[in-house]
Structures
1.
Amino acid sequence: MMQAPDLPTWAAVIIGLLVLGGSVLTLVGAFGLIRLPTFYARVHATTLGATAGMAAILVASMLCFSVLQSRPVVHEILIALFVTLTTPVTLILLARAAIYRDRSEKAPQVPDMPGARRKG
Amino acid sequence: MTSLILALVITASQILLGLAMGCAAFRMLRGPRAQDRVLALDTLYVTAMLLLLTYGIQTGRTLYFEAALVIALMGFVGTVALGKFLMRGEVIE
């Protein structure tokens, strides 16, 4: 199903560049999920798709619908706001859970809690 | 002509996003520990949301936007619940 909306050339160029750039950034982030060695490194890689990739594709979508309907359409802001607010929360929660699990298993590369006194 | 090139670019982007979902699925199946799998699931959600948005651009319908919003909401709830479970062993205490 190869199709595209009828857009003026300037809008098509901008939308194409933004969509392609956003998906390339997301792919690079997801590729880091495979290549990077530890969990704490992988947490950083995936945020590339959740911030830059998402922003590029949402701006492209906003521009596309604004040109198609000849009025400003900004409801994609909802997704941008929501993902921008929730991604740090989830990833901090996940990283804290991971560091808690690693500490309770006495994994070697995990630092101790700062300020905590070591017993024994 | 412009429309054809835009259609090609959008299809190429969808293939790239599909590859990104493949990377996340690989890490989810392979991941050495549970937190790797949860992280891969989060990435899978975000990438699926972006894929739906590109379908919305392709067809010019706003239906896909609502589906993407629902996926974003559900992904947040799912990842928070799984992270809480990894931390404490229970979701609701």
2.
Amino acid sequence: MVERFARLAVKRWTGFVVGAIAILVVALILARVVGNEYFFFAGYVVLQFIVLATAWNILGGYAGYVNFGSGAFFAAGAYTAVALIKGFAAPLPVQLVAAAAVTGLMGFAIGAMTLRLRGIFFSIATVAIAVICETVVLNWGFVGGARGATVLQPSTPVFFASYTRMLFVMMALLAVLAVALARFVETSWIGRGLRAIRDNEEAAESVGVPTLKLKLFAATVSGALMGIAGAPFPLYMNFIEPTSAFSLNYAVSALAMPIIGGTASWAGPVIGALLLGSVQQIVTVTLSSELNVLVLGLLLVAFVIAAPEGILGLARRLSGKGGAK
Amino acid sequence: MTGALLEIDAVSKRFGGFVALSEVSLTVRAGERLGIIGPNGSGKTTLVNCICGSLSCDGGSIGFDGIDVTRLASYRRTRLGIARSFQVPRPFSSMTLAENVEVPLEYVVHRRSLHNADVAAEARSILARMGLADRADALTGSLTQVGLRKLELARAIAARPRLLILDEVMAGLSPVEVDEMLDIILGLSRQGVTVMMIEHIMRAIMRFSERVVCMDAGRVMAEGPPDHIVRDPGVQRIYLGA
Amino acid sequence: MSFELLGEAILAGVLLGCFYAAVSVGLSVAFGLLDVPQIAHPAFLVLGAYGAYFLGSFGVDPLLAGVLLTPVFFLAGLAVYRFYHAAFESRGTDAGLRGLALFFGIAFIVEVVLILSFGVDQRMVEAAYIGKSVALGVVRIPMRMLVAFLVALVLITGLSLYLSGTFTGRAIKAVAQDQTALALMGADPVRIKQWAFGIATGTCALAGALLIIVAPVEPGLGRLYIGRTFCVAVLAGLGSMPGTLVAGIILGIAESVVLTSLGASWAPAVAFGLLLLVLAVRPAGLFGQR
């Protein structure tokens, strides 16, 4: 039994692990070799979106429950980190774990309240949590309230030329881990259950799928990952304030990137984040940030209507392969 | 009562002002072949939904094999041994037929084990019994009505139920297809599965049932062997009008 | 809290509540009756508000602007529904995801376009009845609230009469309950639903005008109103018009009391909290049947 499990695991994961290690090695090399500091600023953002989009997709793409308030989870992770830095001078790993715990709990709580109901009410609750979180933070002087707070980066670590470079590599690691987690969920029996829920929840329940439990699991994992995406943000920016932390851009990106990339598999959010994240960086710099966000919205609507399976789906259709997954 | 697999005791269900089920009581023996007939709106599907847990009942209790399942979650009832087919087929449309059947296998039968070759093989053999083996890797969108209904049945069978509830599984089928389905269902019954069949197709009811229950306006109007029910004046009035 | 203060809060709440009913009535139709996940409803309200603002810059009274824009919004609603229906032959939860994403995208686009056109600062309108207050016995009521109250009553009563009095109106109520029966009677359910959605969107013109009459608006206001409008629509139950009015008043009073006792930062939470409570206790709403 165990032997069979091991053989199956090896077969499924060898390619992925090799690829992941390769990516991390590349990231480390880039951190050494590339001179332009801006590259790491931009790269960090794109990697961060990979985590955020992957997180969203675990509940949204796999199970069909749409989170409109990803910004709140992201910001909650960021502010948890700030609180820990200010209060305990906590190191980054502790911040990450704490952020995951807080936002995972948020996801669970919202889920417990609304996942028994129709999907739209979960979505509305995520809007509510966004409004509530922002209000809480605005009134919380300890983390800077409306004026914001400065966050100093600790001394530059040994191996890296700058703290930002280290954050870049760390975010690459987080992205790889997040995608690995998504892939694991997707290919496991949990993933099949989530897909059954997405396709037809009542039928899923009638064939023995514990729909509420699976949905709560997905909501918790999704929330936790979003918090992890947000936790290093204060250190990255050296500053945190509510308007940028709670920016609507996170909520829309978290939703648009998986839908445009393709919600059926872990690769979709990655493609969406890489593509749109990079485009965003370019557009924001060359045009305006509002225009950037408008383009995102238009692309989202266009894909929802015309290409609901995203870029992945289009690619599959063009290459002539039909069939599942 | 010995031998009783399903005991429905004074179950009621209301939707706002509309009474869908009014103190319905019914006992189903283990291994029985029960037919349920009645005009549209008589509460047949509502009864099925209450038994399976898709709906919670407003009053009364439901016992399965001695266990009170009245407040039990739907998926737990399936794991206890109640399976159903839906009146309008509800396939998992992003999955192939094989994957559709694998879901109950993974969640009811082979829980806590891996998705291994056994599950895949069993799924295919179930599809083969339904005559769908050649479409095992096709998406459900390619199926005809018959195919969809057979898939519904395959999924229900995959859960290895002790009680199988079929909600108009033969609607829209030709006489040949009806007989085909009936043979499969009778085969299941011979293996010991208790079957409750809700149907409008009288030929199927007559061929299949040991006992028939007729419902009207949320109540059980008549109960008895098929040939008695068919001659019951109350039943005839319901179907043919006063 | 003293009785006097409570009394004032309740009175303010009733006026506010009727206003909430007016802005939610379109959603009662679109979501309550037609079951469309119209997350973009508040965005259309804000759009209507800015429409009133825009016409106001030419000296047009906001209420008049609302009335003038109603046919425009009605036609827009027809188009959106046609789009929605064509793109989503509903099946299962997947269509739900896409439907939600679609309306979210629309709401978002509306918000960004408003930001690009008018900026993020608050906008307001001027009219004879804004800025003055009226004495009713011992209390002073802002005149604009009274105006909103009256217009809201007219809007809801009008819509209620339409739905129960005219053939199309009754067809709309019927289509919510039994599409097949309606089709068998010779009416095209899709056309009826499209017409209803048009009406629902049309109300956003006048209701949006009320929005900017009652308080200044800014493009992000829609998010706050998602909670309020869905709370009222769900509490009302299945598209009931009288239900919408009652539900609005309940929310208005609840918010007003919380505002007076706990302060402004807690007010937005009231709608969401009430919505969750309704969903937990009586999801069919006050006047709904399920």
